[in-house]
Write a structure and sequence with these properties.
The strands form 2 sheets. The protein has a 6-stranded antiparallel sheet, sandwiched between helices. It has a 3-stranded antiparallel sheet with strand order 2-1-9. α2 (about 30-35) packs across α8 (about 235-260) and α7 (about 220-230) runs antiparallel to α10 (about 290-315). A hairpin with a 6-residue loop joins β1 (about 45) and β2 (about 55). The chain has helices at about 10-25, 30-35, 60-70, 90-100, 155-165, 190-210, 220-230, 235-260, 265-285, 290-315, and strands at about 45, 55, 75-80, 105-110, 130-135, 140-145, 150-155, 175-185, 215. It folds into 2 domains: about 40-60 and about 190-315, no CATH class; about 75-185, Alpha-Beta Complex (Cathepsin B, Chain A). The chain is α+β, with helices and mostly antiparallel strands and about 325 residues long. The longest helix has 26 residues, at about 235-260. It is globular.
């Protein structure tokens, strides 16, 4: 028996994309869109004193993932970001937001959560990336749904645009990033959609080999985390990240990836299901401070990551 998970989770860009597309009568659940975007495979750990692990591929990022998913669904859309930000960049971005909103709601991000004063925890979220669904603007405010749990909120224009400047978001293509005016221009086929996702996975896995000098990636990242825990050297900021964010997000993603692939490739789906169970168990053991069991699950995740890579590259 397989019981599908339905509940809260940190799916800001998938949720925002789902909300906006539904307003255009394109009905895609956030779990499906998250699977189309397929960021949450692999792992990486940046090198440095304040580094943290991510259970995602360093070859992919949410901006690229949103565009990939939209393209894969046969949608045409307006896209804007400012990689230069010289001169009247903010006014230009505001004009573009006004223009896109004439066609309907707009996906906006990454933005810096530290500026989102509608969130009571915003002061603790400086530099954290986020995505929202903007639906209106006037002379004073920008109105949006925040998928962190805050529908129908608004911010003064100057504060929202400062958030969109996203100065502290390293991966961004540019500031003031947004997507809008969606229109289907191509029929889609489920088999081809999933084949495109597999191709994207292959390319990302192959690309990680070129990053080993700057990052610890893939199975090596899980193995490195295991060794750090065995030595009792896990920094408190990393432990808190794992307890309150990373393990639960990874478990949900892998659960959704299982459902995405189960009718297309059962073997691949089962690898994701095993990873979901391992991440969920690791979350439980970490909360209970059973570090030996956490270490054992990290060893299992190391093996599963190797199995995943070998299988995907064989397709």
């Amino acid at each position: 028996m397989n019981l599908n998970y339905v509940g809260s989770g940190h799916y800001c860009y998938a949720n925002s994309t789902s909300m906006v597309l539904q307003s255009f009568d394109y009905e895609y659940h956030s779990s499906y869109l998250e699977s189309l975007m397929m960021i949450g495979f692999s792992a990486f750990w940046t090198k440095g004193e304040n580094s943290v692990p991510f259970f995602s591929s360093p070859m992919l990022d949410p901006e690229e993932a949103i565009s990939f998913a939209l393209d894969n669904l046969g949608l045409r859309y307006g896209r804007y970001f400012d990689s230069n930000c010289e001169g009247n960049h903010r006014e230009k971005a505001l004009r573009k937001l006004h223009d896109l909103l004439t066609g309907g709601p707009v996906i906006v991000g990454p933005l810096d959560m530290g500026y989102l004063i509608s969130n009571p925890n915003h002061q603790d979220l400086n530099g954290v990336d986020h995505y929202v669904a903007v639906y209106d603007i006037d002379e004073y405010n920008i109105y949006f749904h925040d998928p962190a749990g805050f529908p129908f909120v608004h911010l003064p224009v100057e504060i929202f645009m400062e958030s969109c400047f996203a100065e502290k978001i390293v991966y961004k293509s540019g500031s003031y990033s947004m997507w809008g005016k969606f229109n289907r221009v191509r029929a889609t086929d489920d088999i081809q959609i999933k084949s495109n996702v597999i191709t994207r996975l292959k390319n990302a896995i192959a690309g990680e080999d070129n990053l080993q000098n700057s990052l610890i990636t893939g199975a090596n990242a899980f193995n490195y985390m295991k060794k750090v825990m065995q030595q009792g050297n896990l920094p408190i900021h990393v432990e808190n990240n794992l307890r309150f964010f990373s393990f639960q997000l990874a478990a949900r993603r892998c659960s959704d990836y299982y459902n995405f692939f189960k009718d297309y490739d059962q073997e691949l789906a089962n690898i994701f299901l095993n990873k979901a169970k391992a991440f969920g168990a690791t979350q439980t053991y970490l909360q209970a401070n059973k570090l030996e069991k956490v270490i054992a699950k990290l060893e299992l995740l190391t093996d599963l990551e190797n199995t995943f890579n070998d299988y995907v590259l064989s397709l």
